[in-house]
């Protein structure tokens, strides 16, 4: 039997004598609910469930620990001010404004959870647990893809065949799952003084990369390949070239052996052509709530600069989940509803999380830089601030600098 340390020593369980009651603290409840059980709970449909419900567990922390005035909070406050100003300017209803304000509320609660619990004495165990969760995604993703056609309609109806590869994450959360893996790859590749906490990283890295390539999150595949390209450029030497070449030969070999390679390449090229196409038909689909990233870019480019947008929740009803236009992705949602100013404030939130500091000094690292770049690229396809699994892993990896560096473990 296991319990979870209430002191915040780690998310991971520790053994206790049989017969002792099972205790789950806030950090453990949120971690396991978001990263391990959201999809299962949603599919079982025992209770009405949205993953954002996990943020409710964090609210008592604000009463216990208070709110710390730092750069991240100031950026959130600026975002809230812009949302209110946009609502006033566009004549939005209080319900619409409150519906949009849930987004910065979710991201701040995840940030506050991590800032309260993640410390130098537990960060190593948290990262190890994240890697453990990451390693189990591959067999689950493959199993989900292979068994989709055999599932009962009640279960298969939650997502299409393309979206039914979310591992242990929320239903249709393949992009969030792939992003989770990508940030761990960033840490393992670029923090050479701290990645010693994960043994056999050159086995872990191809495994996580393979998982992302097999999943249907096309945008995250591009991000993952860019991360590897930066690594190859940053540490260009014979040893790096050999490691990267062997890793990719292993990944490509496994994909080819399993029969996934042609399918992955075909899906990737079709998705790329579809997103870049900007014909009238695609725009009509976008304007009726359908997906169309290229059409969205063309449409908003013609409209000129929207400083305050068209009003919070103008194009998405949080209760019915109905979209008036196809604003799929954080960038398009924020730009259209709270404008360029609102989107810039959201960028500041992620910037200050990735680059913590005091006074005029900020902590700059390759992990922070690439994590920030990755989340901004993801924002074109995913609601990064509204998806608490994205916000949570982003905040955890941003705290990896708390690991005691080791001069003896540089690879």
Describe the fold and architecture.
The longest helix has 25 residues, at 330-354. The chain is mainly α. It has 17 helices and six strands. Helix 4 runs parallel beside helix 17 and helix 8 (174-190) packs parallel to helix 10 (218-234). The protein has one domain (2-276, 307-402). It has a two-stranded antiparallel sheet. A two-stranded antiparallel sheet has the order 3-4. It starts with a strand and ends in a 13-residue tail after the last helix.
Overall 3D shape:
globular
Portion in beta strands: under 5%
End-to-end separation: 37 Å
Q: Tell me the total number of β-strands.
A: 6
Main pleated-sheet profile: 2 strands, antiparallel
Gyration radius over CA: 21 Å
- Number of spatially distinct domains: 1
Q: What is the arithmetic mean of pLDDT?
A: 84
What sequence of helices (H) and strands (E) makes up the elements?
EEHHHHHHHHHHHHHHEEHEEHH
What structural category characterises the helix and strand content? mainly alpha
Across the major sheet, the strand order is 1-2
Work out the helix count.
17
Classify the helix fraction into a percent range.
55-70%
In terms of per-residue confidence, which ranges show pLDDT below 50 for 5 or more consecutive residues?
A: 1-24
